[in-house]
Design a protein that fits this description.
Elements: H1 36-46, H2 49-60, H3 63-71, H4 78-90, H5 94-102, H6 115-132, H7 148-159, H8 164-188
């Protein structure tokens, strides 16, 4: 009996020579106008359950994760929401991870990136996807734009050495970190 990955395959929607990379979120966003984050959090807390769930699902991409956060409102602070998101992330099952990974959509590398970089990253990503059966995810928050490509390539190559269970743990952590950045951007940017 052959055992395959517990996660479904992910297919990239762009040419194979272009590797998607995660959108960067700033670790220290500019200060919002006075009360903007608090107002956004109040709006999120007061939103109907289905709307809050939809907002969270668009950032977390896991029904169970989004439902858990929506059901535990209100949150007194952004830090409380982030802590609840972290706690829920640690409880994700393999199915929840697969669902979140299947929903990841990533922008492509800038057009002025050397073609050799596209090819190297494309080959590394193909090897990663063949080994683990899902898209490579990594949070690049806080990295300077000129460091992202090297970081991605080094991370893919390093993580190819993981066994599937160890990589599942790494993927869960990267999804948790991506979710934190998305939630911060949502509330600090008042994108409700």
């Amino acid at each position: 009996m052959t055992r395959g990955s517990t996660l479904p395959p992910h297919r990239l929607s762009h040419p194979a020579t272009r590797l998607p990379i995660p959108a960067q979120t700033r670790t220290s966003p500019p200060a919002p106008p006075e009360g903007a984050a608090e107002g956004a959090l109040e709006g999120f807390n007061a939103a109907p359950a289905d709307e809050a769930h939809h907002i969270l699902l668009s950032r977390l991409r896991s029904i169970r994760w989004a439902r858990r956060l929506a059901d535990h409102r209100p949150y007194p602070t952004l830090d409380a929401l982030l802590a609840a998101s972290d706690e829920a992330a640690y409880d994700l099952t393999a199915g929840d991870l697969a669902e979140a990974l299947a929903g990841e959509t990533l922008p492509t590398l800038p057009d002025d990136t050397y073609e050799a970089a596209h090819m190297a990253l494309g080959a590394a990503h193909a090897a990663y996807e063949a080994r683990f059966g899902h898209v490579f995810v990594i949070c690049v928050d806080g990295l300077a734009p000129n460091e992202v490509l090297d970081h991605l390539l080094a991370a893919i190559r390093s993580r190819l050495a993981n066994d599937p269970e160890d990589e599942r743990v790494v993927v869960a952590e990267e999804l948790r970190r991506l979710a934190r950045g998305r939630l911060v951007n949502l509330l600090r940017g008042a994108g409700l």
